[in-house]
Amino acid sequence: MAAMGRGLPYFAVGTVVKGFGRGSKELGIPTANFPEHVVEQLPDEITTGIYFGWARVDNGPTFKMVMSIGWNPYYKNERKSMETHIMHVFEDDFYGSELRVVMLGYIRGEKNFKSLEELISAIHSDIAESDRQLSLPEYEKYKDHSFFTEKSETNCNGVVKNGIHVDNRKLVNGSTGPSDHSS
Questions:
Q1: DSSP, residue by residue, 8-76
Q2: pLDDT tens for residues 5-24?
């Protein structure tokens, strides 16, 4: 397992959108999904696979998370996704909420599975590995990173790399504003 490296740590923020509807229902492992344009901004060094880190919804506490980035071969997805499983039980859905994550380490590459049970077992192993890694001091310190306490615009959708916005214009609802349309 690679630790820092691979473009890590990597910070991302976006509005939670509805995903494929499988996390809670079929897998019993709910996920919060980033919009496509946040996924499209991932740098090349963030390859498909499973990552661990910290996540925060709106102004709530920061929790451990495990994230799948990729095409989910078992389901033959047609679009790449960033699906975050926050290691906390939430009482309600939080679609439309702001999700902030920092990805700190790489667990494994994306792979296909022969059965749903095999997939679920691998996800549980990924969750356990994420929990173990995030208990280490070098990763635990990110729980209180200033990224999780910064203010952002309502429904800000953007990517932050090493604490600095990739583009100095914040993305709001998929657009950076009038300057996007200048020629």
A1: BSEEEEEE-B---S-IIIIIS---EE--HHHHHT--TTS-SEEEEEEEEETTS-EEEEEEEEE--TTTT
A2: 678 999 999 999 987 665 55
Q: Which of 36, 45, 83, 110 is catalytic?
A: 83
Q: How many CB atoms lie within 10 A of CB 151?
A: 6
Element (DSSP H or E) covering residue 96? none
| Rounded CA separation 171/166 (Å) | 10
Helix or strand or coil: residue 179?
helix
Looking at residue 153, its pLDDT comes to 47
Question: Catalytic site residue 83?
Answer: yes
> How many other CB atoms are found less than 10 A from the CB of residue 129?
17
User: Using one digit for the tens of pLDDT, what is the confidence trace for 77-102?
Assistant: 678 889 999 999 998 889 999 999 99
For the chain, how big is the Rg over CA atoms in Å? 16
Which stretches of the chain score pLDDT less than 50?
2, 153-157, 161-183
